[in-house]
Amino acid sequence: MQNFVDMPALHDFLNSIYECQEGEPGQKLLKEELIKQLQFTEAQAQLYSSTVLTKNSNGSADWVNMNAGKMLGSWVHIDQYSSAGYMNSKTDSWVFNEDLTYQHKIEKYESSLSLGAFQNFSMSSNPTPTISFGIWAPSDRLEQTFNVVIIASSGYASILKVAWPNDKDFICKSCTIDGVQYAK
User: Fold this and answer.
1) Neighbour tally for 181: CB within 10 Å
2) What angle do CA 45, 33, 162 make, to 5 degrees?
3) Cα 75 to chain center, whole Å?
4) In whole angstroms, what is the distance from residue 29 CA to residue 21 CA?
5) Contact 86, 183 (CB under 8 A)
6) Could you say which residues of the chain have pLDDT below 70?
């Protein structure tokens, strides 16, 4: 499977789709072109086209571009839990790149402390991170909550639900992704 080289390439392609067919026929045309030109599978192309061109109306390519601009960069969520003698920390990060690729990394740290005649402290200081990567593209819905399609390098396609704290800000420092709070 291939991808668009960057956001301007996707923007231009979506404009040309709209010029040929608006609405649902344009979604179908995008799906066909993704299969033919970029070697998407039928399921990947269906999810991608129905997410990216939810409306496929005049301005859709611009709205995809605006949502992409908000998403670009690194987003981090940190969880920490501690109880008597135990601490667990998890860092969950998403990186959305201009070339429409993403990386999702989860790192977990665990430590424990045993007090007694022999005091012990252990910590997993070099955990093995879980990393996935692939391609992404946002919806043409210029709203506070919208979807982002991701297709992992394994071929698995899914949707992220993104919500901004305020739909009027172009530069956002926080958002929720699938209900989890992230910050830049």
Assistant:
1) 13
2) 40
3) 10
4) 7
5) no
6) 84-86, 111-127, 167-170
